[in-house]
């Protein structure tokens, strides 16, 4: 099945056309700076042909129109007719407890998605805009929503409950949910395939480290705990998000800065993490460069980032009663040997030892970076969330056709 995957953010839309039969990507692209001056669209075909277009894309509707146009463009496209798109798969961030599984989107489901906005006010509205634009432009093509939260659905209650009155969970679904589900699922399954063992027999810790970062403990193919919570703010520190903090800090800082609730939310989401500690940037490449040049705050940001990751890995070894594999993925996990090295340093008593020479060589390729002696195998596996979305889309469309 040819599936168009759409990942619609506040000012960008990422897309890929995937053939689920071959599991290969036919083309991929990104529309950036939607509604901001200088919109740019980049489009790359599987044969390496690349195009960059600067045009005036003012909203998600026109972004989807531009994507569909380039897909059938005689020079840059890969389709002769839009009818070749058999389904559209949308990455959706948060389903609350309303959707436990990926879902075929009709008008009723779309309306229910609006009710999930409160769970992820920054992410859900642009996700819905992407869906509406696809429904309008491809009215006869099925749309499927694949949620970031789904993979963590089977977490046990003691792992997802917060220490707050039970009624907030019971009546309003306030609990830990977890995110990056498609990525944790993809790299953990792939790790099992690579080592040639049954996924159901393995204990795997997956570290998705990018602008947003989360870590998951996976036992027998089920995510039993993960570092993000009710929102993607919990867990390790991130590019601009604070990660785990004493909740008392929210009151202390809001009082000092005279913040409204929205201002406090924006502060902890957008001005903290690597950006906040370094005072320089949220970008790990720049943090590493500044730290190497002797910048104290950049080095501190790097140290805090790695220390928090190490604490999660160690605690998940406890949760799982040992681990077979630790996987690094995401822009930082795939590329930064410094982060991989520092966040697994001095863990030989827990069974982790890297082959540092091997670790230094590896960037964005599937590889084992632990030493021969390491009881736990440490791997780098580039993520492929789009493939998970495309395969899920095919499964859900197939289920509905079979009815
Ligand atoms: P993502 O959100 O998964 O796209 O990851 C983005 C993050 O990956 C940014 O902080 C980048 O600086 C970081 N990143 C990408 N390449 C490298 C690299 N070679 N070394 C360190 N960090 C990198």
Spell out the blueprint of helices and strands:
Elements: E1 2-8, E2 13-19, E3 24-32, E4 40-45, E5 50-54, H1 60-71, E6 87-92, E7 103-104, H2 107-115, H3 124-137, E8 143-147, H4 157-160, H5 166-172, H6 181-195, E9 203-209, E10 213-219, E11 222-226, H7 248-257, H8 261-270, H9 273-278, H10 284-292, H11 296-320, E12 325-329, H12 330-335, H13 337-342, H14 356-361, E13 367-368, E14 377-380, H15 385-401
Helix pairs in contact: 1-3, 6-15, 10-11
Bound molecules: adenosine monophosphate (AMP).
Please summarize what this structure is.
The protein has 403 residues and is α/β, with parallel strands linked by helices. It has 15 helices and 14 strands.
Which structural class matches the secondary elements? alpha/beta
Low-confidence stretches: none
CATH superfamily of the largest domain: ATPase, nucleotide binding domain
How much strand?
A: 15-25%
Topology pattern, helix = H, strand = E: EEEEEHEEHHEHHHEEEHHHHHEHHHEEH
Describe this structure in words.
The protein contains 15 helices and 14 strands. By secondary structure, it is α/β, with parallel strands linked by helices. It folds into two domains: 146 residues, Nucleotidyltransferase, domain 5; 189 residues, ATPase, nucleotide binding domain (Nucleotidyltransferase, domain 5). The strands form two sheets. An eight-stranded mixed β-sheet has the order 5-4-3-2-1-6-8-7. Strands 11-10-9-12-14-13 form a six-stranded mixed β-sheet, sandwiched between helices. The longest helix has 25 residues. The chain is globular, with a radius of gyration of 21 Å. The model has no long low-confidence stretch (mean pLDDT 95). The protein binds adenosine monophosphate. Adenosine monophosphate (AMP) binds next to helix 10 and helix 12.
């Amino acid at each position: 099945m040819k599936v168009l995957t759409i990942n619609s953010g506040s000012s960008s839309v990422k897309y890929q056309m995937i053939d689920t039969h071959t599991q290969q990507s036919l083309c991929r692209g990104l529309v950036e700076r939607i509604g901001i001056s200088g919109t740019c669209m980049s489009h790359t075909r599987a044969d390496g042909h690349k195009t960059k277009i600067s045009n005036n894309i003012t909203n998600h509707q026109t972004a989807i129109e531009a994507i569909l146009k380039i897909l059938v463009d005689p020079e840059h496209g890969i389709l002769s007719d839009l009818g070749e798109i058999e389904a559209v798969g949308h990455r959706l961030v948060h389903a609350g407890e309303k959707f436990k599984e990926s879902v075929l989107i009709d008008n009723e489901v779309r309306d229910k998605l609006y009710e999930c906005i409160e769970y992820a006010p920054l992410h859900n509205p642009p996700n819905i805009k992407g869906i509406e634009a696809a429904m309008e432009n491809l009215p006869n093509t099925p749309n499927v929503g694949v949620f970031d939260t789904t993979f963590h659905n089977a977490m046990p209650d003691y792992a997802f409950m917060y220490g707050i009155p039970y009624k907030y969970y019971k009546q309003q679904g306030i609990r830990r949910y977890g995110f990056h589900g498609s990525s944790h699922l993809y790299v953990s399954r792939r790790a099992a395939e690579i080592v040639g063992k049954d996924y159901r027999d393995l204990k795997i810790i997956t570290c998705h480290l990018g602008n947003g970062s989360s870590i998951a403990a996976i036992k027998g193919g089920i995510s039993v705990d993960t570092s993000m919570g009710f929102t993607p703010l919990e867990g390790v520190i991130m590019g601009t998000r604070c990660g785990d903090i004493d909740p008392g800090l929210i009151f202390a800082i809001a009082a000092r800065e005279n913040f409204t609730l929205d201002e406090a939310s924006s502060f902890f989401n957008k001005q903290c993490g690597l950006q906040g500690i370094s005072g320089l940037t949220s970008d790990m490449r720049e943090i590493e460069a500044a730290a190497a040049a002797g910048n104290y705050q950049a080095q501190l940001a790097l140290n805090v980032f790695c220390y928090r990751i190490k604490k999660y890995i160690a605690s998940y070894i406890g949760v799982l009663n040992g681990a077979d594999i630790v996987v690094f993925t995401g822009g930082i996990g795939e590329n930064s040997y410094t982060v991989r090295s520092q966040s697994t340093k001095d863990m030989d008593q827990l069974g982790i030892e890297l082959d540092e020479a091997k670790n230094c060589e590896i960037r964005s390729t599937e590889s084992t970076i632990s030493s021969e002696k390491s009881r736990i195998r440490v791997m780098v596996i580039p993520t492929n969330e789009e493939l998970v979305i495309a395969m899920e889309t095919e499964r859900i469309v197939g289920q509905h056709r079979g009815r």
